[in-house]
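Structure tokens please, single chain.
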Amino acid sequence: MNIQTERLEDHKARFTVEIEPERLDNAKKAAARALAKRVSIPGFRKGKAPYHLVVQYLGENNILQDALDELSQEIYRETIGQADIEPYGPGSWDDFKLEPSPTFIYTVPLQPTVTLGDYRSVRMPFEVPPVEDDQVDEAMRRLQEQEALVEESARPVEIGNRVTIDIHSHFTDDPKPVEGDAAESSESEAPPKGMEFVHQHDGQINLGADDEPIMTGFKAAILGANAGQELEFELTVPEDEEDFSDIAGRKIEFHVTVKKIENVTLPALNDDFAARVTQSEEKPLTLLELRMRMRENLQNAVERQARERYANEALQEMVKQSTVSYPDAMVQEQIDAMVKDIERRLQQQSLSLDAYYRLTGRTAEQLREDYRESAVSTIKRTLVLREIVNAERVDVSEDEINKRIDELAASFGEQAEAFRGIFDTPNMRNSILNELLEQNVMNRVIAIARGEAPVLDAAPVEALAQPNTEADATAAEVSGESGAVE
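Here you go.
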């Protein structure tokens, strides 16, 4: 068997495999015997007719095709075993040539490869914005609302009311195309036309003078409505709203039912109020102590958000410096996962994917193409992050896993010990390991970008990332049928 290997530009390998004519002849004879057992040839019992009569009765092409179907799998497995490649998934049998010698042609997707650039040279300023007084005031007001005196009102909706409403809303336009760095750093596709925005029953909204619930324009749309009234209106997401920067400019149609209108009387902000909301603690807090704690909690939340944003931006810079190669099969698998996620979200709205296609006028092919750029971005990010894990020798200790299990179990209070057994299983420990590994490597990315990472003075360890077990299991298989048999 003579194997010639050619590396293709789309991260595949093409194998041209010549075999001895005798091997094909033997395969044809085996195919003929198998066929003869399934058909009746006059003058012979099933399976007993000589080869030349089976060929004459069934036809040379039929026997050849059956022989090739079986032989192609056998040759492929032998080729993969001898070739110096790492398949990503099953290959395809593309063609067969009978002359000048029996030759099989296969293409095989290859495992992705990553060459990190000078990722340790990435430097970015890190800033955590301070929590402003008005943010603390807003948080304190939310506490007031939880302790408020509430009375039902027969008047139309006005400022100061609490309203109970049902909301159904969806996007009425297609996502706007994103170009440049923003597109590359996007990890999730923008919601498509027809996708739900907010779906809520019996939601309670407080209409403070400075509040803008849901999004800009929503409060104005429901002011003056009466209990039991149904409203329909369309809003455009403002371009300058930070919370909705990923859907800025999109149009959203709302269907709102006002179910209840209530007057809300807020309690005074004083030491009695602070003591009441912290009465379950060992020592109730004063108003000043409560504000100080609220500021600290808010600052911690702001820092977590800043670190997450900083880590993603630093990682994206590292991705730009890296060379990443991957087969299209990997992209298709990522798109499959994204489409399944869309399907799951649609099912929550009692919609099928086919119904979505009819409503939006899009096809399955168009939806998959919409997701391609995001899928490629996700793949690059994941592969580079995995390579950084290896290069930086980031790992997770058993103590870290046990500590995380203790934290998860502790959230169940008196039942903590019983729930610990649920978390302390091989599958859960592996899931926790992956969660902690991502946290640890993102912390290392932050340290690198801030110039605080430890110096590496040893050779990298073997890859810690989990292997693609599905690809490994199918690497020795060949899918598809040959082209024209020559």
